[in-house]
Amino acid sequence: MGFARACSVALVGVEGVVVEVQADLEPGVAAFTLVGLPDKSLVESRDRVRAAVVNSGAEWPQKKLTVGLSPASVPKGGSGFDLAVAMAVLGAAERIDPKAIADLVLIGELGLDGRVRPVRGVLPAVLAAAEAGYRQVVVPEQTAGEASLVPGVSVLGVRSLRQLIAVLTDEPVPEEEAVPEGSPDPMLAGLMVPGAGVGTGLAMTPVEGPDLADVAGQRAARKALEVAAAGGHHLLLHGPPGAGKTMLAERLSGVLPPLTRRESLEVTAVHSVAGILPPGEPLVRTPPYCAPHHSATMQSLVGGGTGLPRPGAVSLAHRGVLFLDETPEFSGKALDALRQPLESGHVVVARSAGVVRLPARFLMVLAANPCPCGRHTLHGAGCECPPSAVRRYQARLSGPLLDRVDLRVGVEPVDRSDLLGRGGRGESTAAVAARVREARERAAARLEGTPWRVNSEVPGHELRTRWLVAPGALSAAERDMERGLLTARGLDRVLRVAWTVADLAGRDRPQAHDVDLALQLRTGISRGVPVTLGGGGR
C-alpha cells in the first residue's frame, strides 16, 4: 500500500483555504476515486491527470486509487488542483519521494500533454498558503510573477509536469519548447475569462489618462470632485445631457493617489479571482475605474452567479471608482443593494453553496438627468415630460441611497466662453492630485493610530466627541437638522466633508465657512460660500 500527500488551495470568494490532497494506493481492480466535495470541473481532473502523467513519461499505477481532498466540508472547484493530485499520486506510487511534496503547495491545471496551464486566483491562493505557514509553492510559469508578490514565499514556476518531476528527483530539467515571439500563447487563456467583465465596464487607469483640464467650466463640480477624492466621499452629479458629467467621472480615478502596496495586493487578488488580470502585469498599482451599463443586474453589481458567488462591479472597483451613468435607469433592486457596501466596505453574499465576503470599498459617482428627456431644467429647451413622469424619474433614486451620498452637485450647461476657452483653462489632473495627496496626508496624520484612513470612514460619534470643529461652526447645520433638511446620518456626513474641506485648505479644524461649503455641496442649496479652485474656500 502506498500513501502520499500534497497541498493546494481552495478559494471561497477571494479568501483561500489550504486543502490537503491525499492519495492512497491499494491492491485491487484499477480505479480512480476522487472524494472531498469536488465540483464537476474537479471530478474531470481524473482523466486530465491520468493522461498528463502518462504523456510525461511516468507510469500510471494499475491499482485501486483513492484521492481525498481534506477538509471534506469545504466546497472545492476549478482545475487548479490538478498539479497537486498528480504529485500526490506519483508520491504514493513512489515515483517521487513523498516527503519532498508533503509540505509543498501546488497550484495549476494540467493539459493532456502534461503542460501546466495557468489558473485564476493564484495571488489570493498563495496569500492563504503563506498565512497558513507554508513557504514553498509551485505555480504555472505564467503566474510566477503574481505569486512572487507575496513576501516570504519561495515560488517555483514550471511549464510542464516533466519539469516538476525532474526538479523533485534531482534529474536534469528538460527544456520545453517556448512560444515564438509574436505568436499567440494558448496557455494564457486560463488567465482571462471571456465574459468575466461583461456589464462591469472595468478599465485600468492609465499612467497618462484623460486630463481634468479638458473639462470646460464646471467650477462647482470640479471642486466637488476634488473634495470627493481627498476624503473618499460619494458624489452625485445631476444636470442635463452634454454638460460634462461623464467627463468629470472618468477623470476622478486619475486624481486619486496611487495604491499602497497593501491596497495593490487587495485589488490584484480580486481581479485575479475574477479572471480579468492582464497577463504580464501581475500587480495593479492604479485605482480601478468601473462603469457598468445601466442594464446591469443586481448580481453583476454586488456579486453572484451559480455556485459560490463571483466578484461583482463593486468588488472590481475596490479602492477605485464605481461610476453609475444614467443612474435612474438602473433597477431599484440593484441600486438598493449598494447600501450595505457603501456603509461597511464589503459585500456578504449568501447562496446555497455558501456565504462569501467580498471587499468593496469604493468611491461611488452617480450621474443623473433631471427628467427622462434631460431638458427639464433648461429654459426654452422644450421639455415635454409631464410633472408625474419627472417625479417618477427622480424618485428612482431612493432616499436611503441618496442619504449615503455626501456630495450632490448640479452640473449646468457649459456657456460659450468656457467652451471656447475664453474663461481660462482649468487646472490639470496633476495639480489637483497634488492637493488631494497633501490633504490625505493631513488626514492620515490626524487619524494615525485609528482603524480609519480617510475622513469618510470616521464614525460620526468620533467626529462629534474626539475631533471638534471650531466653536459655533455647526450653527447652520443644526438649523437644517431642526428643519428636517438633514438627518442624523446627514449631519455626520456634513462633518466629514467639512474636515476634508479644512484639510484641502491646510486648516487644523473646520471653521464655519468650511461647514457651510459642506452643506452647500450636500444639499445643493447655496449658502453664499464661493467655490474657489485650489483653496477649499481659504
UniProtKB/TrEMBL annotation:
SUPFAM superfamilies hit by this protein: P-loop containing nucleoside triphosphate hydrolases (SSF52540), Ribosomal protein S5 domain 2-like (SSF54211)
Top-level taxonomic group: Bacteria
UniProt cross-references to Pfam families, sorted A to Z: ChlI, Mg_chelatase, Mg_chelatase_C
Domain spans labelled AAA+ ATPase: 231-415
GO MF annotations in UniProt: ATP binding
Protein family membership: Belongs to the Mg-chelatase subunits D/I family. ComM subfamily.
Protein name: Mg chelatase-like protein
Organism field: Streptomyces lunaelactis
